[in-house]
Amino acid sequence: MACNKRQRSSSSHTNNFDVFVSFRGADTRNGFTNHLFAALQRKGVVAFTDDQTIQKGDFLESELLLAIEGSRVFIVVFSKDYASSTWCMKELTKIVDWVEVTGRSLLPIFYDVTPSEVRKQSGEFAKAFAEHEERFKDDLEMVKEWRAALKTSCDRCGWDVQNKQQYEEIENVVEEVINILGRDQIWNFGDDLVDMHSRVKKLEELLDLSANDIVHLVGIVGMGGIGKTTLATALFNKISPQFNACCYHDDLSKIYCNFGAASAQKQLLCQALNQGNIEIHNASHGTMLIRTRLCHLKALVVVDNVDQVEQLKKLGLQSEYLGAGSRIIIISRNCRILQNYGVNKVYEVEVLDKTQSLQLLRKKAFRSNDIGKEHKGLTLDILKYVNGLPLAIEVLGSFLLDRDVCEWRSALTRMEENPSKDIMDVLRISYDGLENIEKEIFLDIACFFSNNNSYSWEPTVKKFLDYRQFYPDIGMKVLIEKSLISRQNGNIKMHDLLKELGKSIVREKAPKEPRKWSRLWNYKDLQKVMKINKEAKNVEAIFIEQHEKEFLQGRIRVDTLSKMDQLELLILKNVNCYGTLNFISNELRYLFWNHFPWLSLPSTFFPDQLVELILPHSNIKQLWEGKKDYLVPRMEIVIPGIEIPKWFSKQNASTSISMDPSAVIDDPNWIGVSICALFVTHEDTMHDLQAVKFETWVESLPGLRFMVKKCGYRWVFKEDLQQFNSDKFFSRNSSSRKRKLLTRFIWRHLKKEKEELQQLREKYACDWILDVDNVRKDEVLQDLRLM
Predict the structure, then answer these.
(1) Tens digits of residue pLDDT in 549-592
(2) CB distance 214 to 324 below 8 Å
(3) Which residues are catalytic?
(4) Which of 85, 190, 467, 658 has the CB geometry, 3.0–4.6 Å to 590, for a possible disulfide?
(5) Which of 673, 619, 679 is nearest to 651 (CA)?
(6) DSSP H or E segment with residue 168
(7) 405-417 helix and 373-386 helix, angle to the nearest 10 degrees
(8) 744, 735 in Cβ contact below 8 A?
(9) Dihedral over Cα of 452, 453, 454, 456: its sign
(10) How far is the C-alpha of 707 from the C-alpha of 717, rounded, in Å?
(11) pTM of this structure
């Protein structure tokens, strides 16, 4: 019979069993072999015996052969009547043949006979073979093979257990089996697993299995569907024979939430102690049992799907409660849980690379390594969509199995629009466990900051989330801890399928009515909302980003913006807009709109909440009609031309200006920039950053001269622009005057003496006066003075 219910796949060349035990049931079943099977089971060794699972007779050549070929170690228990059984002799012959072919291990045990009796076929064995030769006198060649199998078996090292303590001898046998299994370098993790050897090896290094005097805790963390459970199961199956007690707690969160801590403790103890039922009155009683029953055992405990540290504490699984050499493995999507529980060694599971993804997809979608020519292009599309997530590859690969190219193409289109529910349900578990504000951060990142562009955490993403009042510093940390996002080289990264999850959550209440969504990120959806021109009170944020080439490919009427009174974030990049803008939400905190088509913002706009206003390449003539004493903390307007209009100096705003003179340049050797350097500002905003900067294309034009106009005065700097660094111009924050000079210049080469430059700085209240070649500074700088 099969002593352990854990079995692997039933392929004739797959290791379905760790050990195959051949014995004469009538001689040993009620004693020695029962104890042997129990000892193997306690160590997690999967053992097979033919005693009850295979009917003798017609099935020998099929089921028995499969079982033998699917085992890694063979134990033969020789007893007095072993040779009298034709079934045992046929079985032994098959085992010896397979061992000689594969080189696998055969371990003989001499129960109540001596090795000499078996080798020489004397005593009871002589009587048995006399009967066989009489019975099979027409097939003596078979009997001869049986004799040879017995002799070959005896040539192997084994155990003579006569007149010895059977318990000790059984322990020695089991220990040898474990050593053999551990030395086996061709451990089979299953045909469907990819890159499992290297991952298990890294985990084994963290576990430090050779250290038998201490207890180690190791964590496994990663996003949903990435293969944490698969990896832990493979590791558990491989190393469990090295422990006295083993437990794989497959879903702690579910058992804890549905049945309580005592039920979770009961599962742990029943598995570890290999007992069918253990009565636990309450969690305190369970903790006491864990401490007293496992304290002397070298135990392997895997606890899967932990989503609260409280679950681990209530489970009562402390390292000091287990025997020396024990190992505890905790699996979670949230690394914070592992940290809070004192897990210092954590293995973060990564997505599959392209080669590994293709290998897994082949196994699932084609059941072979060959991909038809007609499927190759679509295969690449599938791999791009799943982005290395094993769960997605398995689900989609299984779905696409035996389907033609048309079905593949149709399925891919459908999945891009409506992701697989099986995949989304797994991914959503982490989202559902977030606080409301963290959910909002997740949705903003999924919808706005997760396309093919790379968005840096600072200043881009953090700034926008700050404007949305989402307190992103702590929120982002939570998302990282729960494996929903990552930060790589300062940039925010999110798996493509998590992006799809976020977008599907935004759409789920009204999939075909984007005006009812909280966020808009797609040009076509925005176009649909504007075309319907109905109330869109749910929309809180719009972020549409197109390529410059797309600006002239279509226009969109944006009258519906006036019907979005909850809008907080509006970003329109290269969106060609027209229509009437009578109102814009007073809740607006951030506005970026290049090619803003109107001459001013709506007169009804009261920017009480506005933190940042950026209108590049706009036709704006004034910000708002009438006198409005609103101070926008950061305002940047990019104006075509060479002059800053007079209205701009009256806006009472802390301002940054970027000029684009390319549209009005007549002489290609000149770049003209007019700077109206005097702005009226409030005294309490003197410290705010002021800037005048140049478009990046300017610096790439060699040999150009730089001309600056101020209030009708012309200064000419003959320095090449490659030597001109125009990144930042800062105001002097020590002044308390209402009129302030905002212009600062930077040059890279310092040819003046430092002392003279310092005098110029002090004279003209300018910290950034450096060197300008071939220019009489005194004539130029005398006009750069505080008014």
Answers:
(1) 787 778 889 899 999 999 999 999 999 999 988 889 999 999 99
(2) yes
(3) 91
(4) 467
(5) 679
(6) helix 166-183
(7) 20
(8) no
(9) negative
(10) 6
(11) 0.59
